[in-house]
Amino acid sequence: MIPGSRLTPEAAGLGMTSPRARARLVESLRRNGIRDERVLAVMGSVPRHLFIDEALASRAYEDTALPIGRAQTISQPWVVARMTEALLEGGPRSKVLEIGTGSGYQAAVLAHLVEHVYTVERIDELQRAARRRFLRLGYRNVHCRYDDGRIGWAEHAPYDAIMVTAAASALDPELLRQLSPQGVLVAPVGEPGAQQLMRWSGGSNGWQPEVLGAVSFVPLLGGTA
Ligand code: SAH
Fold first, then answer.
1. d(Cα 110, Cα 117) in Å, to the nearest integer?
2. How many domains does the chain have?
3. What is the pLDDT of residues 11-21, one digit of tens each?
4. 108 lines ligand 1 (CB under 6 A)
5. Theoretical Cys-Cys bridge with 120: which of 3, 98, 101, 149, CB 3.0 to 4.6 Å?
6. Atom of ligand 1 nearest to the CA of 100
7. Is 221 in the pocket of ligand 1 (CB under 6 A)?
């Protein structure tokens, strides 16, 4: 008998959702410039395959965006890692607001790195599925809201960081009002095909924008569905 041949492919580390597949993803993120070891460790531990449809699970640790239904996508792992890194830079972040829960994957990544994650989603079906995942996986520090998140979530403000995971041509200034002066806002801004990942910081002396690079996100839309 071949040694180890009675193990399932997952247990043997050969499966597409195995720890080894996750480790390969982490190596690819590292090669592509992700430097924050805390972020890399979390990307290696969160089971991304449990945030997508089972039929796509074998692709969960490819560095690519995947459909999650209702014309939405779970972001590419590199983008999740880069946005998380950009959010953590420059200060302790305890309370974070995410706009665009989608699958819940980005919120789960954040939940390992900060104390409280508040996340808003405008599509009821998606936010319900994400809530179920947070419960099942034991993410008790993720707080969900079903609403149009373009004006944030005032009730729990101020936040140490706000992350928007859908793109708008312009953001509502209300978001900056919900940030602490030491906070950061990370968001993709621009029209499809010309979006830039932006970061605003330095609130006590006037918010300064910084361009982090080109990205491609689904649009930030108004109202609920
Ligand atoms: N962070 C998500 C990525 C989801 S894609 C993940 O990790 O899977 C962007 C999400 O933003 C979609 O689910 C979309 O429905 C949602 N969205 C778009 N406009 C929104 C708005 N105004 N308020 C809240 N969510 C919004």
1. 7
2. 1
3. 555 678 888 99
4. no
5. 149
6. 11
7. yes
pLDDT tens, 47-103? 999 999 999 999 999 999 999 999 999 999 999 999 999 999 988 999 999 999 999
pLDDT, one tens digit per residue, over 20-30 is 999 999 999 99
What beta strand segments (E) does the chain contain?
66-69, 72-74, 95-99, 116-121, 142-146, 159-164, 179-189, 195-201, 208-215
Instruction: Count CB neighbours of 86 within 10 A.
Output: 22
User: From the CB of 16, is ligand 1 less than 6 Å away?
Assistant: no
Residue 153 belongs to domain with CATH number? 3.40.50.150
Question: Is residue 58 a part of any domain in this protein?
Answer: no
Q: Beta strand pairing status for 159-164 and 179-189? A: parallel
Spacing, Cα 74 to ligand 1 middle (Å): 9
In a domain, 199, yes or no: yes
Ligand 1 centre and the CA of 64: distance in Å? 17
Q: Could you confirm whether 18 is annotated as catalytic?
A: no
Phi/psi-derived region of residue 13, left when phi > 0, alpha when psi is between -120 and 50, beta in every other case: left
